[in-house]
Amino acid sequence: MTRVHASYTKLLVALLLSVSLIFSQQAAFAAQPLASSPADGAAEYKQFLQEKFDISLAGSITKGEFIEAVAKALNYKPSGEAVTFDDLKADSPLFSSAAALYENGILEGPGVQGEQVLTKSVAVSIAVRAAEIKELAYTYPVEKVNSALSHLQVTSSGLSKHVAQELAAAVDTGLLPGEFYNSFKPGSAADEQLVNVLLGKILVTKGLYKKYLGYISDADIYAKLSSAYQTSDIIDAPKLQTLVNTALEQELITGYNIKDSRFEPNFIPSLSLIYGHSNFKHAVQLIGLLRSEGLDAKVQFEPKTSAFIHLAEWGDPGPNVVKIANGNYIAYAKEYDLEFEFSTVADKAAFQNVILTYAKKNVKDQTGLIASSWWQPLYYSSTELKDYEVITNNFITDKDSPYTVNPFSLNEDSAKVVAGLKAIDPDAVITPFQFWVDKPFFNYLHGEAL
């Protein structure tokens, strides 16, 4: 009886090991679950500063170089009012940036000392003022200052009152992240990593860095996406719509979309692309699809309203329409763009295969696709991608509102479209630019079915 029981036990163990091996082999072929993505750091800020502003600081960095970088990143220009410095003449290359920062309360003068090596304490002080949190800093009493500075193993002795307060506020607000605490010596030279982080944090604090809901991998990304969609609505931009509705009536364009520039994410062009759709279930499933394929990215939701001609013979046009002279209608549809910023160019390139495999309809009643997949999906990039086609956005802006109109056209039709729009409104601000779009949408503009 004991021998039989032992044999049974061995058989059971063998079966369990076999099942375990099978499942482990299956797991090896499955996409690994995405880990939570960390917040941007020195490397991301460095890349952003280089691509957006052509700012690159390395090696021994001077105070003057940092001043110029801050002015450039914030687009600060001097007003022209008289500004004087003890050690800087008006014809100096640094003068314009220094004057701009002085007028914005970032430099105090009377000297700039631009040729000196930038120290960590000076870099933080300039960053606090540029991030517009100096008033907060100057509320700090000595006890609160010393409490914050204890994280740096620094005391306020030897520092001026304002510098100590600025350092303390930088610690408490996160302007100076914890990764710099252990090595922070106020009088030592500021290195490239610290400088890039401080410049990045200035932009973040002022709302001039990237804007996004979160990452594909975030546990709460679906809730954030749902909230963004539910609070979006049809965009009403009467001045711009008068122009492009007339263009629709004249058959100058076949449609357009309106967007709100306040939702523009300010992503790095080389890593980002935009995907447009109208169905919210599709958006949810798209995020899940990308997760299942092991692709992670920052995600921004941009409300969008699309307009197109609804022919009278099609029947009831439904709500959100405008009747035009020939009896047809201009119909408005609530849509959205999802803009993604991937961590690598390779991940960005991989996006297309996922869409063509699981979100591109090729035959009627096709199965194996995510909900509401389109015949001609729309996704595009401002930088070149293999197997994409180039078209034109005849981009229209209004200086009195945040809204923009995006009438896409084939490149060869752009001049005609712009001329026609200008004939309707000579004062229209139109800035055509080319970009890379998926082939199915390119074929759609050519009047092809797929």
TrEMBL record:
UniProt keyword list: Signal
Signal peptide span: 1-30
Listed name of the protein: SLH domain-containing protein
Highest taxon in the source lineage: Bacteria
